Amino acid sequence: MKTSESGIVKDTLNFLKYYGKYENYDIYESEIPETDFNLPDPEINTETDFNSLSDTKLSLALSVSEKEPDKQKEKFRKTGMKEITESFSNNEKWNNCSTLEEFEDEIKDCVKCSELAGKRTNIVFGYGNPGAKVVIVGEAPGAEEDKQGKPFVGRAGKLLTDILKAVNFERDEVFICNILKCRPPENRNPLPDEILNCEPYLFKQLELIKPILILALGTFAAQTLLRSKEPLGKMRGRFHSYKGIKMMVTYHPAALLRNPGWKRPTWEDVQLFRKEYDKMIK
User: Fold this and answer.
1) Which of these, 169, 179, 212, 266, has the minimum number of CB atoms within 10 Å of its CB?
2) Fold topology of 93-281
3) Closest by Cα among 118, 120, 163, 130 to 256
4) Is 137 helix (H, G, I), strand (E, B) or coil?
5) Is 151 exposed, middle or buried (0-12, 13-18, 19+ CB in 10 A)?
């Protein structure tokens, strides 16, 4: 997302091109293919001189109250994002949960993102083995996921299951979740403040599961987790680190449905992922 006038025009054109190209793609609404949009980074380095940041940047980085925007921004400038997010987590009851079941029950009625909470059918917490060594992370639930309360259902979900089986992982063996736990309206991209609100839930899931490897699916998930604006093609094929956990990036299953040419690099990625897993568990 650009804040300059020319940047806004460019983003608008990209948005129109994207929907013009994919609106008739014959998959479930929930299976939005990856995009090439540059993702605004919701976490600003705490070493930054916050007084030099524009109000637009601050608004993107923090969900600002309409009643007290100046007070919110001043607090942000003085303390930085790290202290705010830590305070946000530490003041929540769910932060003391010791099991995934208890955690899910605690956040199932979350209303931090009023737009998402008001329109959802179900929270899509995640699914799989609570003691999994592998966690699969996607972007956000779609229409089918919202209806069923489970991540990765429909054609893209079936393809993900097949990909996992191809490298000897059963779906029930891993844990599958998304960055957002609620469906964005019309499957739009998650907003920075929505990511800021929901990402601590992902941190908590990883804390409870204690995986040794993460597989990020698609550009948006990868850019969000790695705080990067690199295209997926440059991020895939090698391991990264997310909160000290080894992480691999590859194409979203929905992207493979529309572009079979990406199946080979995806196969290479998951083979490398499996080899690393075998090496680590030994």
Assistant:
1) 212
2) Uracil-DNA Glycosylase, subunit E (3.40.470)
3) 163
4) strand
5) buried
| Rounded CA separation 148/141 (Å) | 10
Task: Give the bridge partners for 175, in sequence order.
Answer: 128, 135
Interior CA angle at 253 toward 249 and 258, to 5°? 120
For the stretch 130-188, pLDDT in tens is: 999 999 999 999 899 999 999 999 888 999 999 999 999 999 999 999 999 999 998 88
Which CB contacts under 8 angstroms, 24+ apart, belong to 60-64?
Answer: 60/1, 60/3, 60/192, 60/193, 61/192, 61/196, 62/193, 62/196, 63/193, 63/196, 63/197
Least-confidence region, from 8-12, 56-60, 193-197, 216-220: 56-60
**Which tokens belong to 76?**
């942000």
Q: Shortest CA distance to 219 belongs to which of 205, 229, 211?
A: 229
Phi, psi of 37 (to 5 degrees): -65, 145
Supply 161's token pair: 């299951």
Please answer whether residues 170 and 132 qualify as being in contact, where contact means their C-beta atoms are separated by less than 8 angstroms.
Answer: no
CA distance 209 to 105: 16
